[in-house]
Write a structure and sequence with these properties.
- The complex is a heterotrimer of chains A (281), B (382) and C (159).
- Chain A has 281 residues and is an alpha+beta fold.
- Chain A is built from 12 helices and 14 strands.
- In chain A, the strands form 4 sheets. Chain A has a 5-stranded antiparallel β-sheet. Chain A has a 4-stranded antiparallel β-sheet with strand order 11-12-13-14, sandwiched between helices. In chain A, strands 1-3-2 form a 3-stranded parallel β-sheet, covered by helices on one side.
- In chain A, a hairpin with a 6-residue loop joins strand 13 (206-211) and strand 14 (218-219).
- With 382 residues, chain B is of the alpha+beta class.
- Helices cover 19% and strands 30% of the residues of chain B.
- Chain B has helices at 26-29, 66-70, 80-86, 126-135, 149-152, 178-184, 229-239, 265-278, 288-294, 364-367; strands at 4-5, 11-12, 46-52, 58-64, 74-79, 110-111, 117-123, 137-142, 167-176, 187-196, 208-214, 219-224, 247-250, 282-285, 300-310, 316-328, 344-353.
- Chain B has a 7-stranded mixed β-sheet with strand order 5-7-3-14-11-12-13, sandwiched between helices. Chain B has a 5-stranded mixed β-sheet with strand order 9-17-16-15-10.
- In chain B, strand 11 and strand 12 (219-224) form a beta hairpin.
- Chain B starts with a strand and ends in a 15-residue tail after the last helix.
- Chain C is of the alpha+beta class and 159 residues long.
- Chain C has 2 domains: 7-83, Roll (Ubiquitin-like (UB roll)), CATH 3.10.20; 92-158, DNA polymerase, domain 1, CATH 1.10.150.120.
- Chain C is 31% helix and 17% strand.
- Chain C is built from 5 helices and 5 strands.
- Chain C has helices at 29-36, 92-99, 109-122, 128-134, 146-157; strands at 7-14, 17-24, 55-58, 61-64, 77-79.
- In chain C, strands 2-1-5-3-4 form a 5-stranded mixed β-sheet, with helices on one face.
- In chain C, strand 3 and strand 4 form a beta hairpin.
- In chain C, helix 2 packs across helix 5.
- Chain C starts with 6 loop residues before the first strand and ends with a helix.
- The chains are: A alpha+beta (281), B alpha+beta (382), C alpha+beta (159).
Chain lengths: 281, 382, 159
């Protein structure tokens, strides 16, 4: 509840932010703080320098790139996603999922960038962004680079954002008729996920990503292969999930055994795909 | 017909019964003008943080407070050894062997639950007290962990040498002719084991106190949220070797209690000692994590070999069982009101048989020890 | 200013009053409000950001003041429960809380009022579902929530 002493910097530009992050080992970017401040209160994390991104307005924008992708600044909050007409038009699942994270107060501050950079296996956004085939733009002293979702989530609390670097934006393809779905089981009505699944379905292909079962989101590739061809009847979707559970090696903890998570993975993947199939336009 | 004008300016035409009466405290509470103990300040006050055991069962080998005392803004510390010198153990409301237990406000020589406080530090700000607590070095020798009441019956790991056993009380409540009831029953429901896990009533406001000591009169003033201050005084005064007239409790608004603010006398005794030792008001606000691990828990109970004699129309005419109350590593419940204050494990055998007993009205209800608010989760291993 | 520091002067508006204050960078907004400014109406009920008793408004949005550093509130407008009733005149919501018996111990009440006030500002006539969704981040241990929801719905219903 009471933080250790910490140094605090409030850069005015992304370049300044990147410079401070690079100059201080043990510096951490502070976005919404809904995770970082919390762990600092427990003294489970004690960065030496906090680099507050609050003044970096360029990271708060939602728009469209020249190639029609939805472009979301890393500092965009869940509340902003919920209220964005661009998101509503291009990829409403982002707003739907954002609206299930914690509560109003957390959503008013919590950012999509923060959520993905934490890379907690139980977070809401990582499997969704993997299913959506999002790309992540990272800026450092050496310049800017863009990585795929599969390259971004490297493990528990580990992403492709390195020391002295900052995630600046996430690009999501506009849906173009694809349907998106999201399903899982939480601890309590709006708590942390025990297992979550995200699915994107077009006329003849599906992408399915499962969270909470490994260090980073897992693509259900066998299921995707069986779904290629476009039969999204309930029978077909259920059949496509056969063997999904046994292909996974999820953890056991107080919230669920490994077997329970395998079971949940199959059910939530099926539900996500059915939901997605039903939402195609 | 009564006419009453309330504080909110409403005029009631009838009497109070059956009326929705607006409360008199709402006006200040909806404006954030309540006075909860943490809202109160005193000039020169210090903030207290407790150092707590991370182990469920361990010997305290040593406590070194020197680094904490070097930190600027730290006013002082207190350890279990000092508590053992300056206070007498809390009296136990229990027959032997439970009554033999020596129970102090801080762990003395040994910790018996994760979260048990072993030392406290007082500093100029909340943050500094927390920082200083990290500088207090406690060396532990871990001991075997005991987390199950049934295991405890074996007395392989005995928590209190003074008691000599983990079974601090056992007895049989026997009424009526149970065997006849079982014979007469249309059905006998048998349950091998029923386990009720412990819980915490978790009031939204945590416990705490602001304690001042008057050197001239020897009187302590505790601005706090104790639910039963009169009882708290009775528990604290003998320990502090003083009279209950020297403990003045001032309680204003309290953010819920539900039992969790009854057993605060150990923490309050520590605060009283610190206020006297440091010559300044000292304040402690419990953290939620500490409330969960180290404040009172509702009874954890195990019922074994339950047999219930039932008639076809559902009337329960008798039952028999063996009941274990897990009272934790150091129960300090002053609320046992006449029933033996059970510690560690109280083994009750109940047999009750009577045609007239109704559910909810069984003679059992009168003798069953009331909900025992165990002070802390002593048996959770870390 | 991009140089890291351990204390900073914050400039912010609190309940309509412009303030400047030196704070340690590690101090949480809730402790700044309660201990430095003496605004003790905002309460602390947990240490993990779950209970919502510390809810205040920052630039009109409901946030948990225990999940924010005071320095992060630099340049913002902060409103607390003390800022609701102007000159002791209770808002319709505060009165509804009294009429609907929406408080017992009163500890969660400031947080509830701030969350509900923010809801009513953007959705003046919320349904019961809207209210429950808006109050998800506020825990009450006394009332069982029903009267709180009723009070907020009733306030919206009065137009």
């Amino acid at each position: 509840m009471l933080l250790r002493e910490v140094e605090y910097a409030r850069p005015a530009t992304v370049e300044e932010a990147v410079a401070v992050l690079a100059a201080h080992e043990g510096a951490r970017a502070l976005a919404g703080g809904q995770t970082l401040i919390n762990v600092m209160k427990q003294r489970a994390a004690a960065p030496e320098v906090l680099v507050d991104l609050a003044d970096l307005d360029e990271l708060r924008e939602i728009g469209f790139s020249s190639d029609g992708m939805l472009e979301i600044g890393a500092m965009v909050t869940c509340a902003q996603l919920q209220g964005s007409s661009e998101v509503d038009v291009a990829r409403p699942i982002l707003a739907d999922v954002a609206g299930t994270i914690a509560d109003v107060q957390v959503r008013n501050r919590g950012t999509i960038g923060g959520n993905v950079c934490v890379s907690d296996p139980t977070n809401h956004f990582p499997p969704l962004l993997v299913a959506l085939d999002a790309t992540f733009t990272i800026r450092g002293a050496a310049g800017e680079r863009t990585v795929s979702a599969g390259e971004f989530f490297l493990g528990v609390y580990m992403t492709a954002v390195g020391e002295g670097e900052l995630l600046t934006k996430i690009n999501v393809p506009a849906s173009s008729g694809a349907g998106d779905g999201y399903a899982g089981l939480t601890i309590g009505a709006h708590g942390t996920y025990i297992v979550n699944s995200a699915a994107t379905v077009t006329g003849d292909a599906a992408r399915v990503a499962i969270g909470c079962v490994a260090a980073s989101p897992v693509r259900a590739t066998a299921m995707e292969e069986r779904l290629a061809g476009g039969d999204y009847s309930e029978t077909a979707v259920r059949a496509s999930a056969d063997g999904l559970g046994s292909s996974l090696d999820p953890p056991s903890d107080v919230h669920g055994s490994a077997d329970f998570r395998r079971h949940l993975a199959e059910i939530s993947a099926v539900r996500a795909v059915l939901q997605a199939a039903g939402r195609r336009r | 017909m009564m006419t009453t004008v309330t504080e909110q300016g409403r005029t009631l035409e009838k009497g109070f019964v059956g009326q929705s009466i607006p409360r008199k405290e709402d006006k200040r509470l909806v404006q954030g003008q309540g006075t909860f103990f943490d809202d109160v300040r005193r000039h020169g006050m210090g903030y207290v943080h407790f150092v707590r055991s991370p182990y469920a069962h361990a010997k305290i080998v040593s406590i070194d407070v020197s680094k904490a005392l070097e930190l600027e803004g730290v006013y002082g510390t207190i350890t279990g050894d000092e508590v053992a010198i300056h206070t007498d153990p809390f009296f136990e409301m229990s027959v032997e062997p439970g009554g033999n237990i020596k129970d102090y406000a801080l762990a003395v020589g040994r910790v018996r639950h994760m979260g048990e406080p072993v030392a406290a530090v007082c500093a100029a700000t909340r943050e500094l007290a927390r920082d200083a607590a990290e500088l207090i070095e406690v060396e532990y020798d871990e001991l075997a962990v005991l987390v199950d009441a049934q295991e405890a019956l074996k007395d392989e790991v005995v928590l209190h040498d003074d008691a000599g056993s983990n079974v601090v009380w056992s007895g049989v409540f026997d009424w009526g002719d149970v065997d006849a009831a079982l014979a007469e029953a249309d059905h006998v429901v048998k349950i091998d084991k029923l386990h009720f896990h412990r819980f915490s009533s978790t009031p939204l406001e945590c416990a705490g106190a602001l304690v001042e000591y008057d050197k001239g009169t020897g009187e302590w003033t505790l601005t706090c949220n104790h639910q039963m201050p009169g009882v708290g005084a009775i528990w604290m005064a003998p320990a502090l070797r003083t009279g209950i007239d020297k403990l003045r409790f001032v309680t204003h608004d309290i953010g819920g209690g539900f039992g969790n603010k009854i057993c605060l006398h150990p923490q309050y005794v520590v605060l009283c000692l610190m206020a006297r030792k440091l010559g300044r008001p000292v304040q402690w606000t419990e953290w939620r994590t500490d409330q969960h691990t180290a404040n009172a828990h509702g009874n954890e109970r195990t019922f074994l070999d339950v047999e219930v004699a039932v008639k076809a129309d559902g009337e329960m005419i008798g039952f028999s069982c063996k009941a274990l109350d897990d009272c934790d590593g150091a129960l300090q419940d002053p609320n046992a009101s006449g029933a033996p204050c059970v510690r560690f494990v109280a083994v009750h055998g109940w047999k009750a048989g009577t045609r007239d007993a109704k559910i909810g009205d069984a003679p059992l209800g009168r003798a069953y020890p009331r909900e025992l608010s165990a002070r802390a989760d002593r048996y959770r291993s870390s | 200013m991009a140089e890291p520091v351990t204390s900073r002067t914050v400039s912010l508006e609190v309940n309509g009053e412009q303030l400047e204050y030196d704070v340690p960078t590690r101090r949480l907004l809730v402790h700044f409000l309660r201990d430095d400014l003496g605004l003790t109406g905002t309460h602390i009920g947990c240490d993990t950001g779950n209970c919502g008793a510390c809810t205040v408004h920052v630039n009109g949005e409901a946030v948990k003041s225990c999940m924010l550093l005071a320095v992060q509130a630099d340049g913002t407008k902060v409103s607390t429960v003390e800022g609701l009733a102007a000159d002791g005149e209770l808002t319709a919501l505060q009165q509804a809380f009294n009429e609907h018996h929406a408080l017992q111990c009163g500890y969660c009440t400031p947080g509830m009022l701030m969350s509900a006030t923010a809801l009513l500002a953007r959705n003046p006539h919320p349904t019961e579902e809207d209210v429950r969704y808006a109050l998800q981040g506020n825990i009450c241990r006394c009332t069982g929530y029903v009267n709180i929801v009723d009070a907020v719905v009733a306030t919206g219903g009065k137009g």
